[in-house]
Amino acid sequence: MVSAPGYVNAEITASVCQLRSVSIHGYSRKGDINIGGIFSLYIGEPASHILFTELREAALCKRVYEKLLALIFTTEEIQNDPELLPNVTLGYVIYDSCSAISRALEGTMRLLTGQRKTIPNYNCQALSSVVAVVGDSYSSTSMPMARLLGLYKFPQISYAATVMALSDKHQFPSFLRTIPTDLLQSIGIVHLLFYFGWTWIGLLSDSSDYGLQGSLIVKEELVKAGACIAFSETIPAVYSEMKIQYISDIVRKTSANVIVIYSTDVALYPVMEVIALNNVTGKVWIASDGWAQSYLFSKNEFLRTLQGTLGFLVRRGDMSGFHEYIYSLNPYNNPDDIFLKMFWELVFDCKLHILDKTNMNITEESKICSGDETLEGMKLDFFQFTDLRYTYNIYNAVYSIAHALHDMISCRRGEGPFYNGTCAFMYDLQPWQFFYYIKNIRFRNKESEEVFFDVNGNPPGLYSILNWQVTPENTFRYLDIGRFDSTAADNQKLAVNLSEMLWNKGHEKVPQSLCSESCSAGYRKAPQPGQPICCFKCIMCSQGEISNQTDAVACVKCAKDGWPNERQDKCITKVVEFLSYEEPLGAALAAVSTFLEMATVAVLTIFIKYRHTPIVKANNRGLSYLLLFSLMSCFLCSFLFIGCPTHKTCMLRQATFGIIFTLSLSCILAKTIVVVIAFSARKPNSNMQKYSDPRLPKFLAILCTIVQTIECVSWLIVSPPFPDENISSVTGKIILECNEVSPVAFWCMLSYMGLLAVVSLVVAFLSRKLPDSFNEAKFITFSMLVFVSVWMSFIPAYLSTQGKYMVVVEIFAIVSSGAGLLLCIFIAKCYIILLRPEMNTKDYVMGKGTFKNGKD
């Protein structure tokens, strides 16, 4: 049965010693089961408009009134549903908290006790007057309510209280809400900031738990992700003109173009009023849901300052039939609805002529409401039927209670919390028992949105992102340009439609908010001492390093086969360098070596063919053959230096070169000593006669060569050369070379060859004037001069070159010195043999017969 509608209005009597108080208004329509509601239907003026000596009555807020109507509308809609609660009549008991904690607590006590006298732990009824409470609008009033209701595990569902502390089930065990917690909103704001690349952020918050906790999470998430806070200020709880001017100056002077404000509209208004007065423009304001769509900032003075603001607001929904319900309202049809009476008189500026105790102040001057007034078609923006957000949350809250009642009555959710596994009758219901059902509900509403509460009593985080745009009529329109869904995948949580966005004046495209300009690729960030991490200098990467992204913290080295390009933003493959046959230099050296090899073969052929002639037999022709063979090998060993180095060529090239050239020098030294011994032995009583053994030259040549062979073999055994990739000698190149491993062994080998060359030069020089017509010592002297000159020039040239040019220098030294020996020693002999045979006689060779050497 439905009890008769009743109006509840209690005046707190003021005595001489009591503070002035405002009356508490309430309205009820009782049913079998009642839902309680606490709404902040009145709103006061901003603090900057109220003197501290005054206490003004607040005015009914038209836009908040629709939330109360949402509870009544949803209750009636459920009542007409034949399946949800078919045999149960839902009623409601509603009180206005007027945004005051004391009023919210007084209304809560009345709901708990069912009495006009709010006496704790006292209830003359078997049950509370309600099974659950919907409300309140603000976190500041919802928290004290939740503490009180939590003592009894009495279910409370808030539609607008977002402060994170309410998720603590130890402090607020029976608190639930249909609006996401500030934690998710703060994370969404950070996602939005990084979506636009903003890393230099200003923070402003009010002094409530809502502002302080929300801004703290934003700060922590920003710092964790690498952004920086340009400033962080708190709006004072008590109006302070000095503090507000200080905040305004910081906002005006800061280099940060993006400022996040976590505050309620009433607390923010005095600060924004001064900021607008100082003509601050060009900033991007990020609004929390506390002021993201507030009518307080719809005045012309805020248009230039707040244009382009981005606001986070809970997602909107649709309540089918809601606007028809509101348009059908008439106070004459609902004479007990005190809130409708006040609303009607405010909207139509008239007085209702309803004869009851609540309306005895009608005067003759008052305009009487005829009762024919209608809300439909009015241009005044009382209700926003296309943008229902908090109202939609109330809709879901009431349906949550209804579904919980349905589950309880139907004995769903298992056996429930009742004694002996039974289901309780609704008239024998305790709050903690009903809370079991309501916290576990899960259903889809008429919009197919899934409604449920997590373990902390919170719904999923679903937000709309609003863009404040100035219309031609000089008002703000709040365009929905994006969304944030906390339940989506990381790369799909945020979606923004940039094409529909408008920014503040001076920004045609996305504004930047950076302490330092981004470092382009090829540079790295260098932190500045005493500055936040976002304030840095850009330094070019060091040689051999790159950065291939903007704002790189550090440069990275290229791989072994890579090298930075000129911009140092990517690695390019190094040029592989070695002396190849395909390149002109390698081909030329190979051609010269081939030609000299053929020339040496030709000389050897001539000498073999004319081996019985005196000029060939002179001065030991066996040494001449051995010398020509060694020169042939010298020219051939140059091919070991051309081409890509391999393990075999690296092992052979230096050792082969050293041994063969040592053999050549040993032969020359032996030939020189043979000449000296031959001329000295013909003197009477000369001691040189005992050294005139024809085997001595060969023995000397072999002995000198064996010494070098031992040294080279030892080198190959102890520290064998190997092919290597030299990446450090020449910038941007990989030099394929033979690593000699032991430079000491290499230079010892050359030193030994140098020693033989010098001794040969000295001996040949001393014997250059021996009395023969064909004095070979002269030619050996010239050849040794060429040889020593070439290799003396080789040393500085070899040490001053890198890469393949070191190989070129060594091949050139080998070829040129070998060519010098071939030409200086053998060209004159070949000339006589081929072109002047008349000179190829014993008499000519022995210098008019004075030199006789019958054996070679």
Topology, pairings included?
Elements (H helix, E strand, L loop, with lengths): L5 E5 L13 E6 L3 E7 L2 E2 L15 E2 L1 H18 L10 E7 L4 H13 L18 E3 L4 H12 L5 E3 L16 E3 L4 H14 L4 E6 L3 H16 L3 E7 L6 H13 L4 E5 L2 H13 L6 E4 L15 H4 L3 E5 L7 H6 L10 H11 L41 H20 L21 H8 L3 E3 L5 E3 L9 E9 L5 E10 L8 E3 L26 E5 L8 E5 L4 E2 L9 E2 L4 E3 L6 E3 L1 E3 L6 H26 L4 H4 L3 H17 L9 H35 L14 H23 L3 E5 L6 E7 L3 H24 L9 H25 L3 H32 L6 H5 L10
Parallel strand pairs: 3-6, 3-7, 7-8, 8-9, 10-11, 10-12, 12-13, 13-14, 26-28
Antiparallel strand pairs: 1-2, 2-6, 4-5, 14-17, 15-16, 17-18, 18-19, 20-21, 22-23, 24-25, 27-28
Task: Give an overview in words.
The structure is a single chain. The radius of gyration is 52 Å and the shape is rod-shaped. The strands form eight sheets. An eight-stranded mixed β-sheet has the order 11-10-12-13-14-17-18-19, sandwiched between helices. The protein is α/β, with parallel strands linked by helices. The protein has three domains: 1-329 and 375-515, Rossmann fold (3-Layer(aba) Sandwich), CATH 3.40.50.2300; 523-573, no CATH class; 584-846, Rhodopsin 7-helix transmembrane proteins (Rhopdopsin 7-helix transmembrane proteins), CATH 1.20.1070.10. Residues 1-16, 18-22, 47-59, 355-360 and 849-856 have low confidence and may be disordered. The protein is 40% helix and 15% strand. The protein starts with 5 loop residues before the first strand and ends in a 10-residue tail after the last helix.
